TrEMBL record:
<keyword id="KW-0804">Transcription</keyword>
<protein>
    <submittedName>
        <fullName>TetR family transcriptional regulator</fullName>
    </submittedName>
</protein>
<dbReference type="Pfam" id="PF21351">
    <property type="entry name" value="TetR_C_41"/>
</dbReference>
<dbReference type="InterPro" id="IPR009057">
    <property type="entry name" value="Homeodomain-like_sf"/>
</dbReference>
<dbReference type="GO" id="GO:0003700">
    <property type="term" value="F:DNA-binding transcription factor activity"/>
</dbReference>
<dbReference type="Pfam" id="PF00440">
    <property type="entry name" value="TetR_N"/>
</dbReference>
<keyword id="KW-0805">Transcription regulation</keyword>
<dbReference type="InterPro" id="IPR050109">
    <property type="entry name" value="HTH-type_TetR-like_transc_reg"/>
</dbReference>
<dbReference type="InterPro" id="IPR001647">
    <property type="entry name" value="HTH_TetR"/>
</dbReference>
<feature type="domain" description="HTH tetR-type">
    <location>
        <begin position="10"/>
        <end position="70"/>
    </location>
</feature>
<dbReference type="InterPro" id="IPR049484">
    <property type="entry name" value="Rv0078-like_C"/>
</dbReference>
<dbReference type="GO" id="GO:0045892">
    <property type="term" value="P:negative regulation of DNA-templated transcription"/>
</dbReference>
<keyword id="KW-0238">DNA-binding</keyword>
<dbReference type="InterPro" id="IPR023772">
    <property type="entry name" value="DNA-bd_HTH_TetR-type_CS"/>
</dbReference>
<dbReference type="GO" id="GO:0000976">
    <property type="term" value="F:transcription cis-regulatory region binding"/>
</dbReference>
<dbReference type="InterPro" id="IPR036271">
    <property type="entry name" value="Tet_transcr_reg_TetR-rel_C_sf"/>
</dbReference>
<feature type="DNA-binding region" description="H-T-H motif">
    <location>
        <begin position="33"/>
        <end position="52"/>
    </location>
</feature>
Length: 198
């Protein structure tokens, strides 16, 4: 059983991460101070430093929180009871919807490559997204929806396309319109590789 102190510590950390997500979304990394994050979370700066070594560590926790939320939704869809083809299309739509979310756009797409460095950001995206894409491809092949392909290479190609799509949506003056166009384009490409009934 957790102690009251452990519960308080966890609630303090959660408040800090929640505060960081909101402020980084609104003002970006450079426009947000640790003082503001602590004040919004209603904790002392000392409490903040008890949980995080600095601003970058807190940003990475905010990034993980945003990515975990998106990953959780996608994982639930892709492991659902529907046939693999329908799960893949629903997963794509959910990913596009996530790209329209201001927190995901600002933290995961705009800020993270700069704050974390491109290599670390790419590794983190790999950790969150690549496994889902690979397992979805494996399900589609097992169900006979697409031909046997090199799963690793094909998943990498799709992963790159989806990262590019996310960037296009986040950088667009009309993200909903661009998101819809990207969804249509990817669905069209998926239909091109779908096996036809014999």
């Amino acid at each position: 059983m957790r102690s009251r102190r452990e519960d308080y510590s966890e609630s303090t950390r959660s408040a800090l991460v929640d505060s960081a997500v909101k402020l980084f979304t609104k003002r970006g990394y450079t426009g947000t101070s640790l003082d503001e994050i602590a004040r919004r979370a209603r904790v002392t700066k000392g409490a903040l430093y008890h949980h995080f070594s600095g601003k970058q560590a807190l940003f990475e926790a905010a990034f993980d929180a945003v990515e975990s939320q998106v990953h959780g939704k996608l994982d639930k869809i892709l492991r659902g009871d529907e046939p693999p083809w329908e799960r893949a299309l629903r997963g794509l739509r959910e990913f596009i919807a996530s790209c329209l979310d201001p927190a995901y756009q600002r933290i995961a797409i705009h800020e993270a490559p700069v704050v974390m460095g491109w290599q670390r950001w790419r590794e983190a995206e790999d950790r969150y997204s690549f496994g889902l894409i690979r397992s979805s491809l494996e399900d589609l092949i097992a169900a006979g929806e697409i031909d046997h392909v090199n799963v690793e290479i094909t998943a990498r190609l799709l992963f790159g396309a989806l990262l590019s799509a996310a960037t296009e949506i986040a950088n667009s003056a009309e993200p909903e319109k661009v998101g819809s166009q990207i969804e249509d384009g990817i669905v069209h490409l998926l239909h091109l590789v779908r096996r036809r009934p014999e």
